[in-house]
């Protein structure tokens, strides 16, 4: 079984319902929910001016699926929920495969760990909540250490709701 961390984001319609729907769908694909962070309200990163704030969270899963299969399941759920792929538009759901254990993969359609995960407060803070001692496979730092290194000006992250 592999430990998988997936980031969830939504800034369209009922943000919280969207996150819970995506979590439920992923649970139907041999992805067993282990831990789930609180939901955080965050400003969009690279999403254009005037965009609604995002609700973000991270969940960890146990699975026998390989990394490409997990990515495929995430993309399927995004499509199922009507993700608009147009750049700079509000997203009903956005799922990012952040980490698959300590695997390092660099292929055309899959990069692990997610290349921006360690620089995004809306990923690092939820990761600290559910896996503070998880070591970033490339950086060699725990999530708690990465959190300490993030500059304050990277935007707000406010806890909205505890899930589990």
UniProtKB/TrEMBL annotation:
EC annotation from Swiss-Prot or TrEMBL: 2.7.6.3
Q: Indicate whether ATP-binding appears among the record's keywords.
A: yes
What is its EC class? transferase
Q: Which Pfam families match?
A: HPPK (PF01288)
What pathway is it annotated to?
Cofactor biosynthesis; tetrahydrofolate biosynthesis; 2-amino-4-hydroxy-6-hydroxymethyl-7,8-dihydropteridine diphosphate from 7,8-dihydroneopterin triphosphate: step 4/4
User: Its Gene Ontology molecular function terms?
Assistant: 2-amino-4-hydroxy-6-hydroxymethyldihydropteridine diphosphokinase activity; ATP binding; kinase activity
- Give UniProt keywords alphabetically: ATP-binding, Folate biosynthesis, Kinase, Nucleotide-binding, Transferase
UniProt superkingdom: Bacteria
Q: Give yes or no: UniProt keyword Transferase.
A: yes
Q: Pinpoint the 7,8-dihydro-6-hydroxymethylpterin-pyrophosphokinase domain residues.
A: 5-132
Instruction: State the Gene Ontology BP annotations.
Output: folic acid biosynthetic process; tetrahydrofolate biosynthetic process
Full protein name: 2-amino-4-hydroxy-6-hydroxymethyldihydropteridine diphosphokinase
């Amino acid at each position: 079984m592999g430990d998988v961390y997936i980031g969830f984001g939504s800034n369209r319609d009922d943000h919280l319902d969207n996150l819970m729907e995506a979590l439920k769908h992923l649970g139907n694909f041999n992805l067993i929910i282990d831990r789930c962070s609180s939901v955080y309200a965050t400003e969009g990163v690279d999403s254009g001016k005037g965009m609604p704030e995002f609700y973000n969270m991270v969940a960890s899963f146990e699975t026998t699926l390989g990394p490409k299969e997990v990515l495929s399941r995430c993309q399927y759920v995004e499509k199922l929920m009507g993700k608009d792929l147009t750049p700079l538009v509000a997203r009903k759901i956005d799922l990012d495969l952040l980490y698959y254990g300590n695997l390092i993969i660099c292929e055309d359609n899959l990069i692990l760990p997610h290349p921006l995960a360690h620089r995004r407060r809306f990923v690092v803070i939820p990761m600290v909540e559910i896996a503070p001692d998880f070591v970033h496979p490339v950086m060699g730092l725990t999530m708690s250490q990465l959190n300490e290194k993030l500059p304050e000006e990277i935007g707000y992250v406010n806890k909205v709701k505890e899930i589990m």
